[in-house]
Specification:
Elements (H helix, E strand, L loop, with lengths): L12 E4 L3 E13 L2 E10 L4 E6 L3 H4 L2 E2 L3 H11 L10 H14 L2 H11 L10 H22 L3 H12 L7 H18 L1
Antiparallel strand pairs: 1-2, 1-5, 2-3, 3-4
Length: about 190
């Protein structure tokens, strides 16, 4: 079965499913088990990691170019929908979410974000659900950031704003304001 030839260029951003967005920095030739193999060298700045993928295995590994802005917008729109059915036990759902995150597919990432997002400021999450949500959001935001030429934090905020996710309440903010008020009162005495 012939497979389509993936054409990558140096300097291009690519998505490696289990790591997220990286930059193809060069193509090099290495000798592995006595054979010369062309490798794509991908740097993941956020993880401080360099990955080498044999060109022949790029498609099998799931390496892909960035999605289009249109497809990213479709994924974000799907994350606005109603959460999926929660009839499975948590361990099985968590494994499914993990699989979706590691797929690198924007639509599957959007499913995880959709199912695990807080709908109101009063909603709480378990630690494991929050970790899965944040990983899925970060993977989406990595691609969104490169597509829109913004930084990762700004991309995460924009996605959450589009989805209407309530901002977290900073419980320490009230304490700081109270402490500052006390300092002012002491100086006036």
């Amino acid at each position: 079965m012939p497979s389509k030839k993936l054409d990558f260029k140096t300097g291009q951003y690519v998505v490696y499913p289990t790591q997220g967005v990286g930059k193809l920095v060069k193509v090099e030739e290495q000798t592995v088990a006595g054979q010369k193999v062309k490798m794509l060298v991908i740097e993941f700045e956020r993880n401080h990691m360099t990955l080498r993928v044999p060109i022949e295995r790029a498609e099998i590994s799931g390496l892909r170019p960035l999605t289009s802005i249109k497809k990213m917008n479709e994924a974000i729109a799907s994350a606005k929908g109603k959460a999926g059915a929660k009839r499975m036990i948590w361990a099985r759902r968590a494994a499914q979410y993990e699989e979706n995150i590691n797929s690198g597919d924007p639509m599957k990432l959007a499913e995880v974000v959709r199912d695990l997002q807080r709908r109101t400021a009063a909603d709480t999450m378990t630690f494991s659900a929050r970790q899965l949500y944040l990983r899925a959001l970060e993977r989406m935001a990595q691609e969104f950031a490169v597509l829109h030429k913004i930084d990762l934090d700004e991309a995460s905020d924009k996605i959450e704003d589009i989805l209407g996710i309530p901002k977290e309440i900073d419980l320490n903010a009230a304490e700081i304001e109270d402490d500052e008020d006390e300092d002012v009162d002491d100086e006036e005495s």
